[in-house]
Structure formats: structure tokens, C-alpha cells
Design goal:
By secondary structure, the protein is of the alpha/beta class. It is built from 12 helices and 10 strands. The protein has a single domain, classed as TIM Barrel, CATH 3.20.20.
Length: about 325
């Protein structure tokens, strides 16, 4: 599944933002054209892929936001929309009228939530309006960028607004060439311990949890892994592979933390298989130089068994960025 940007503009300025580097380098008025949307849809369909994620920036800022969704649904795509939940009352009213009755198997939202205690009042109220209107189509998302995070409010929102009982957990990573907040390597263990403090909440409220890429397996004890396996319904992965983002100008890259790492254009490829294969090879070269976040990654049985990727490649690239180009060709930014 590819992630397609509708806009290059956001309504928030999150300290952990994984798109910070890309957004800073892009024109804020860039929006996806109908021509490019149709090209991407054709490209995915010819690749045998009928799933697409729409994001930004904030995708709902696009003037054709709803029309784009309807077009993709008419072509029998499953559409997943990543949103902050912050939109004008007019846009929310229109979205609710058109989208609220669509089958959740065909249309879904992931609302990336920030702790309301650290957000301003108008933002919190806007998010609540969105969740009240479209919560039945929405899974909550949360990005961990410090080890002492809180998830209590998410369980409250799930019960209050009838959200899908599945939490998508992301882990913020360093963006080479840009300052953002993320969990430092020496704080990973503390982050893991904090996550498992909510184990009873997941069980009590019957909520499952999915870990996005970049979580290193070894920061969890065997007992914690057993608990994670239960709350993830057995779908527990510690991988790090190409997410494939497509910009409004048809540029294409591995994922947002690596948005400058061998950025190409979609026209350089014939299908999605070629795109994924290209970026998998680039990541393989990086891991050939440094296999993971920790020294132990070199001889880790979990890595050898391909159960863990050793954390996000963005960490390794941050180490390489300012050094002399003495390593294997292809691991550096172009």
C-alpha cells in the first residue's frame, strides 16, 4: 500500500513530526492534481494493489478531498486516511454527510492523536467534533516521542466516541538534517517499560495494539513480548521496511524519516514491486554497514531469523550523515 500526499501543509506543528524535513523543503501551496491522482491510481491498480492511504500535511485541506475519496472508492480501492482530525466545521459537515455511511471495510481513518493536556483548547475541541462525527470509521493513532508518554486519554476517547478498538502506535525517529523530538536509543528500554504499564488497560477495554515500524525487539523482555503478543492479537512485528510515500509532485521516497534518501520520481518505475525492491536494497546496504541500533544487533538471533530489523534505518543514516564518504557506495544521501 502506498501513501499518497494530498497536500504539503499541516494544521499542527508536532515536536516529533516525521514529515518535518519534507514539508520544510516543499512549497506550502503544493496540492495533488486530478491528473496525478489518476496516474497513481492506475499505477497501483496495474501493480495489483487496491489499497491506498491518503495523507499530508493534513489531507482534508485539499479542496477536492471528498471528491478524491469518492473517485477512489468508485474504482474499488480501500482508502485509509491519516488525519489530525482538525478541520473546519464546514468541511467536517460535508465529510460526515458524504462519508459516514460508507462501509468501514472500504473506508477508514487513522486519527493521529496528541495528548489533550499538551494541546490548545480549540485543537482539542476540533478533534472531538471529528471523532463524534466519524469515530465509527476511525482507529486512534499515537506517536511515541518521549519515554514518559500517556495513553489514558486514548482509552477514554475510544469509549466516549465509539472508535475502532485498535491503537496504531508509532515510534518517532530522528530525521537526518532536521531537528525533531524522538526517543533516544538509551531511552528505548524506559519507553518499552512504560508501554507495558498500560497492559491492563488494553485487556480491560478489549483494545488491540499495532506497532508501526522501527520498534527494536530486544528492548522488551520475554515476559513483555508475551504481553505484547496478546494485546496485538498475535500480529506482532518488529520490522522496518519501505512504507513508500508519494508526494504531490509525484516524487517518491522510502518513508518520511528517509524522505531525502534516494528520493526518486514515480515515473522512474513501472510498478510498486520495483519501488519496494529498490528501497529494500538501499536499506539492506545500510544494514550491511551497521546492522541495528545496538552493538548486539550484529550477532542477534532475532535479526538472523528476520524477526527484528534492528530499529529504524534513520538512526544509522544520522550517524553517517556528517562523516567522510568512506563506506559502501549507495548508503549516503544522493
Amino acid at each position: 500500500m502506498a501513501n499518497l500526499l494530498l497536500t504539503e501543509t499541516c494544521v499542527r506543528s508536532c515536536p516529533y513530526c516525521f514529515a518535518k524535513k519534507h514539508m520544510a523543503d516543499s512549497a506550502s501551496d503544493n496540492i495533488l492534481s486530478w491528473e496525478n491522482l489518476i496516474y497513481v491510481a492506475d499505477f497501483l491498480e496495474s501493480s495489483g494493489d487496491k489499497h491506498i492511504a491518503l495523507l499530508g500535511g493534513e489531507p482534508s485541506l485539499h479542496p477536492n478531498f471528498i471528491e478524491f475519496i469518492i473517485y477512489l472508492l468508485e474504482r474499488n480501492f480501500h482508502v485509509n486516511i491519516f488525519t489530525s482530525g482538525i478541520m473546519s466545521e464546514e468541511k467536517l459537515m460535508e465529510s460526515t454527510k458524504v462519508l459516514s455511511g460508507i462501509n468501514p471495510e472500504r473506508l477508514s481513518f487513522v486519527c493521529n492523536l496528541n495528548n489533550p493536556k499538551t494541546s490548545n483548547f480549540s485543537e482539542v475541541e476540533s478533534v472531538k467534533r471529528f471523532l463524534k462525527a466519524l469515530g465509527h470509521l476511525t482507529s486512534p493513532g499515537f506517536n511515541i516521542y518521549k519515554p514518559d508518554f500517556d495513553l489514558d486519554f486514548i482509552f477514554q476517547y475510544i469509549n466516549q466516541f465509539g472508535l475502532k478498538k485498535h491503537l496504531r502506535l508509532g515510534l518517532a525517529h530522528p530525521i537526518p538534517g532536521k531537528k525533531n523530538k524522538y526517543v533516544a536509543i538509551d531511552e528505548m528500554q524506559k519507553m518499552a517499560n512504560r508501554l507495558l504499564e498500560f497492559n491492563e488497560h488494553f485487556a480491560r477495554f478489549h483494545v488491540t495494539c499495532g506497532l508501526d515500524c522501527g520498534f527494536p525487539m530486544c528492548v522488551f523482555t520475554n515476559e513483555q513480548l508475551g504481553s505484547l503478543y496478546k494485546i496485538s492479537s498475535g500480529h506482532l512485528k518488529f520490522g522496518c521496511g519501505p512504507a513508500v510515500d508519494i508526494g504531490t509532485d509525484m516524487s517518491i521516497w522510502c518513508c518520511f524519516p528517509l524522505s531525502d534518501f534516494h528520493k526518486k520520481t514515480i515515473f522512474d518505475f513501472d510498478n510498486m514491486h520495483e519501488v519496494v525492491q529498490f528501497y529494500e536494497e538501499k536499506q539492506r546496504l545500510v544494514r550491511g554497514e551497521v546492522s541495528g541500533l545496538f552493538e548486539e544487533c550484529d550477532n542477534c538471533i532475532h535479526a538472523n531469523d528476520r524477526l527484528c530489523s534492528g530499529g529504524c534505518v534513520a538512526h544509522q543514516l544520522s550517524w553517517f550523515k556528517d562523516e567522510a564518504m568512506v563506506r559502501m557506495e549507495g548508503i549516503y544521501y544522493e
